[in-house]
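Example record

The entry below shows one chain as it appears in the dataset: sequence first, then structure tokens.
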Amino acid sequence: MVHELASNPTRWLMPRWATLLTPLTRGPRGSRIRGLVLLAPVFIGALLLSFAPRGIAVPNNDPGPFVALEVGHTGQSYRDSLPSGALYTLQSGRLPSGLTVSSAGLVTGTPTETGSFNATLSAWTANTTYPLRIEVTVYRANESDQSRTTPSFLTTGGYAVETSSFVLDLTNTFDNRAIRTRVRIARPTNLGRRAPLLLFHRGRGFDEDSYTRFHDLIASHGIAVASVEDAYSFAGSSFSAENSFYDWNRADLGMFSASGVVEAMADALLDRSDDPSDVYFNAFDSENLFMAGHSRGGGAVHTSHHRNFELRLKGLIYLMAFDMRYFSEVRAPVSQPATEIPTAQPRLPSLIIAAENDGDLTYPICDQLIDRATGPTTQVTLYGGVHNLISDSHAAEGNAKITRQQETTRVADWIVCFVNRWANSDTSLDWRLYGGGHQGSQTVGVTSWRPSNRSLLMEDAQDSDIDRNLRGRNLVANLRRRETSTYPVVGDLRTLGLKHVVLTPTSRVSVWRQASDTAMDLSGHTRVVWRMSQDGSRGYSDSAVWLRLLDSVGGVSWYRVYDSSTTGGHLPTYDRLSPHDRFIDVSVDLKDFFGSGGPAADLSRAQAIDLFLVDNGGLSGNSVAVDAFRFE
């Protein structure tokens, strides 16, 4: 799954000064795609980097790209790496005590203090120097310092909102076309500091002012929103696209174009924010740029994700988004002027929001992005949501089960949470975004992937070996187990090669065992985590789900994950409205396992973990899907 370097290093999707900083799609023995590597020898990288174009529109105040490092824990060894092909020195900020960064970009050591730490490095290659921002979060070994709260941002924030609009002349960095577009700004007043800036791109058939109430709600929480019209990419309600080649014949090119327009808009706004004579002086924080897009605008977000070194973004937000890999033109052999969209996502924080009953984007066009995550990623499925209801007035399509106000407030709630986390390094939001904060929710299905230095992946079905997991044997009883994609055949997204474990019980009590060839020391871990979905309205809905942990000397511990007949639990109870057929995180603290009838399992000598499915209502024959089963 390693993608080759594009033959032309100066093509539009390649970074201005980081051509070879490209994501790798291979982890340890078939593991979830993660990490960054050099795809060519360093000396070649230096040559290419030295001649890569700086680009058309670079703001005077250029903060540099951002990389989220893996989570660390005090007293436990740490190792992560920055993009290869450059030499690094610390410019400002600091790493936690116990960690150091080498000139080659290796971050190593044993952290001795907790918190979220930010630093800016000076990256040098072939006489080109640029800033690179990094953040690393460190928790106590037992994560007792991780907040278990789920703060809400559903209500209007505390800031009055000022709106304005203006016509902007810019050069699209995609095709160098000079265009004129309209920008609508919603920004908080009396903030007392520069606001994080959310760059927003509409979907096809919408306008830049189709989301005014939605954007104003976000701005009331202290976040500026800039929404661009961009008539050149997609048709809108009150205008037609001025380039039908983008809009009709090559929809993918409209999304490439939209990414370029957003980049040029961001550069212009940052320059205006630095101009004392401008009405937007000191309005926008260049250190905290985020991008969100709806529908085809979400395709522009996906394009921008792979251009993160170009756009200097802190995070990306996909709203009922097109996955660019849906289009064959962006897969090798690429159909120019498109460039290849790799399977793996770069390590930039991202938030993916999907509408459960989306009537426009057929499932799973934006639902498999979590499978491709290499950096901190949260995917939220809005139960009962549809494609259009985050707009002010567009009619609902699909089977809407929630109102427009419910949909817009729930989407804004997650966006504000995500932006606050990464703009303010607010780790009190980590449990909501990356923990088990929404288990059992009847309004949203949440799953996440956040790289941690101590992640111990057991099974993700990426190795095409049904008999073995990543640690040892897979064993089943009264169960049919398959490794296959659960995604429908839409846009040939199965070419991504992403698979899941599908479990189909053949008796009232069935079990899947993930054994290890050697004893595993889990004493330094706090949780067992996986994501789960069900087949239609059944699967686990009329069942009980249990875990059993076994050690190498006969110890056994149990945990009841869910029971439809009594207590419910970590999975949502089927309410006859939402079938819960999207992936949902399950997160169980290891300290909550209990022994029964004998010695409890010794975590320092763990040998296997069993997943039990117990049918409470007669044999249903329906399946559950399991993915990314791991200890954290």
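Notes for this example: Residues 207 and 616 are 50 Å apart (CA to CA). The domain at 456-631 is CATH 2.60.120.260 (Jelly Rolls).
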